[in-house]
Amino acid sequence: MTSVDVVIMAAGKGTRMKSRWPKVLHRLAGRALVEHVLDSVVGLQARRIVVVTGNGAPEVEGAVMAWSRNRGVPAPGFVRQEPQLGTGHAVQQAVPLLAEDGITLILNGDVPLVEASTLRSLVERSGGRALALLGVRMTDPTGYGRLLRDGEQVTAIVEHKDASEEQRRIDEVYTGFMAVPNGLLKRWLARLTNDNAQGEYYLTDIVGLAVQDGVAVVAVTAADPLQVEGVNSPSQLAALERAFQQRQAQALMEQGVRIADPARFDVRGQLVCGQDVEIDVNCVFEGRVALGDGVRIGANCVIANATIAAGAQIHPFTHIDGETAGVKIGEGALVGPFARLRPGADLGPEVHVGNFVEIKNSTLGRGAKANHLAYLGDASVGARVNYGAGSITANYDGANKHRTVIEEDVHIGSNSVLVAPVTIGRGGTVGASSTITKDTPPDTLSVARGKQVSIANWQRPKKAAK
Ligand code: UD1
Ligand code: CA
Questions:
Q1: Are 257 and 277 in contact (CB under 8 A)?
Q2: For residue 376, how many C-alpha atoms fall within 13 Å in the half-sphere facing its CB?
Q3: Does residue 427 lie in a domain region?
Q4: Based on the domain organization, do 202 and 73 belong to the same domain?
Q5: What's this model's pTM, rounded to 2 decimal places?
Q6: Do 240 and 220 share a structural domain?
Q7: Which of 56, 60, 122, 378 has the smallest number of CB atoms closer than 10 Å to its CB?
Q8: In terms of residue numbers, what domain contains 90?
Q9: CB-ligand 1 contact for 335 (6 Å cutoff)
């Protein structure tokens, strides 16, 4: 097998984004454009990956390094292109890192949705002999380089800005992906000039040089325009995002997931669903989310890094973010509306968590309930506990966090403060509005509040006469 080297061009400014960020760091489905490109390359078993950076180089390199750590793959090599004199100039910078043998696959860092199989077919078509280009037919080819052909043979790529009126009518364009034998690539790059409308060294000019040298130029046609769509402006980014989300929604619906409106559905990560899952409008899923059989998600929920077991229901406007610790929701649990579950929230089966309840780093046993306006942080809550409205765990003393243990069958009255570290013994009751600072024995009533007094004949203050 021929060795494959990969060059990803990511030095451009992305002027049309009108942003302070380098273009390839703008996000599609929650990940930077360059991360999408790297993901499609990682399966190719490339000998070497080189990323060309320039605008925002430290940020782009940082994002690529973070990607390689997260994926557990070796860090790509970097070359800096300063100043940026065009795509041909960009690849010239990578030449010292490319071997003499093998095939180089060149990718635009701003075309995020290309698939590994498409890239593999490009490499195969090059076969170490030919220059293989990925082309596509576009309904609106404005801005793209046009493929000029003589029958099967591609004779040149003409950039939009350099094209004649007649050439601009060609709807077959270059997508920004090519596979080139390394030896030929180096030879051609050395011969590029910048004699064109933009005064740039165009990578696409190597097509003309291949023709001069009698090397075959083959165009592979991308079957799927979405795979080769570039991002140059916010409106293109938004259009691509929507198309990508529609596609994810479609795939889930084909598995049987009932999505109320696929146009109002976003997955920024990985969503795995069981059977008979229902998702209402305007939900956003981030990171890794798993929904068991029969789970129902109400409208306007944001759910990140969570596992939700069979039959659980998440009512509207609930925010769940497990970050790295994760959130777990047990079978048949009811959560929300307006609940907030934070990292380490672990709800057992049949747990109820109601409106304006925040839970962090806490386990709730089977059937425990916290239905209204409450906070549980760093707590272990036993089965069947009822945690009253307005109650909180005071888990933070200003320096350290402490745990609260609420044993099985405890009833916490409304508006209580449990000052951690503290344990409420099994079967106990805490009277409403108590501030509990000491452990309570099992099966007792604990009350810690001012005694009620009623003062007879007390007079309310009166307004002074004018
Ligand atoms: C390029 C192609 C065009 C093709 C289109 C597909 C050239 C000359 N033109 O045009 O034929 O239809 O892609 O999307 O190649 N970059 C650098 N350094 C530079 C210039 C660009 O690294 O000096 C990078 C950019 O960051 C970007 C990629 O190369 O990732 C493409 O650059 P861009 O300016 O967007 O090229 P297009 O005008 O889109
Ligand atoms: Ca582009």
A1: yes
A2: 34
A3: yes
A4: yes
A5: 0.91
A6: no
A7: 378
A8: 4-228
A9: no
